């Protein structure tokens, strides 16, 4: 094959450059003229043959294969939506057990931290001073009752005599006044007796409800003053149990705007269903309902308080637990749901790859909303019937021809993910071993 003239011209120029680089002596040594001329000829020929291959046209790079992707068809439907909030449990009745009288604490009669029943004795105070006060009050009552009897008898004698004008009107008025005064004294003395009886009864401190008891704040033998250190313990009712959570003002306004735009619909009469997720990830067996929402705005936290009530017959829930409250019952009408892996983050917005009828990809900006499990609500940017790329979106370029394949079963995807995780963990383990 003969090379084009242009290549020979290039060869000549390159050969000349190579020869110049050799820096041959301008005057050959004596008796070596023919040898030097032959060496130069051979060098020129070798350079020409070496560069002859460069004149051939380079082969075109192989065309890249179309990326394999899975697609889904966009559809709209009414979709239930849940809201999750961090919540805390609270006893529906948290009662302070206090001393109502001053005195010495004889003994605690319950086991701390155990369930107590209504009417069960929790503490016993020294009752001797109160028994003595009761006897004194009863003695004063007996005195007043005796005086009242004398006054009544005196009035009974004076009334007939006054009617016969045997006694003056003043004597009758005095007798009537004495009888009424003694009757009032009897009532006051009876009140003292009742007070003494109440104080004596207060020395036996009982539980007003069935619930879980707390530890004792005062120990046996302590002097208890009702106005200063009268708190003895707490009793918490466990069934039912309250669960409190807060909704921020921004969330409330966002829900209100979405309802006005038709993007969200609450159940009738806001009859939500509440599920609890415990700290270990398990779901509480009982289902609760919202029974109170504080209409006032908390200026300190910027939230609204919402309370749900749960039956707790087995006492699984305890006061003060942190749980996750999952609120169900709301619906997003005509919602568009796409897998999260189909939505990519661009420089300014989120986008998806839309597949046309020729199987080519086109970038489409979308407006995304909340997450639901592994899916994303898309509020704007997609129409029903359009196809979007789900798996392999990261390998797609604009207007690229795609190879659409079927999605792998969920079990296969799980196995592949596990294998990939193990492979990625292996180098880390080896590096850790090396570091050790």
UniProtKB/TrEMBL annotation:
<dbReference type="InterPro" id="IPR058624">
    <property type="entry name" value="MdtA-like_HH"/>
</dbReference>
<feature type="domain" description="Multidrug resistance protein MdtA-like alpha-helical hairpin">
    <location>
        <begin position="134"/>
        <end position="203"/>
    </location>
</feature>
<feature type="domain" description="Multidrug resistance protein MdtA-like barrel-sandwich hybrid">
    <location>
        <begin position="93"/>
        <end position="228"/>
    </location>
</feature>
<comment type="similarity">
    <text>Belongs to the membrane fusion protein (MFP) (TC 8.A.1) family.</text>
</comment>
<dbReference type="InterPro" id="IPR006143">
    <property type="entry name" value="RND_pump_MFP"/>
</dbReference>
<protein>
    <submittedName>
        <fullName>Efflux RND transporter periplasmic adaptor subunit</fullName>
    </submittedName>
</protein>
<dbReference type="Pfam" id="PF25944">
    <property type="entry name" value="Beta-barrel_RND"/>
</dbReference>
<dbReference type="InterPro" id="IPR058626">
    <property type="entry name" value="MdtA-like_b-barrel"/>
</dbReference>
<dbReference type="InterPro" id="IPR058627">
    <property type="entry name" value="MdtA-like_C"/>
</dbReference>
<dbReference type="Pfam" id="PF25917">
    <property type="entry name" value="BSH_RND"/>
</dbReference>
<dbReference type="Pfam" id="PF25876">
    <property type="entry name" value="HH_MFP_RND"/>
</dbReference>
<dbReference type="Pfam" id="PF25967">
    <property type="entry name" value="RND-MFP_C"/>
</dbReference>
<dbReference type="InterPro" id="IPR058625">
    <property type="entry name" value="MdtA-like_BSH"/>
</dbReference>
<feature type="domain" description="Multidrug resistance protein MdtA-like beta-barrel">
    <location>
        <begin position="240"/>
        <end position="328"/>
    </location>
</feature>
<feature type="domain" description="Multidrug resistance protein MdtA-like C-terminal permuted SH3">
    <location>
        <begin position="334"/>
        <end position="393"/>
    </location>
</feature>
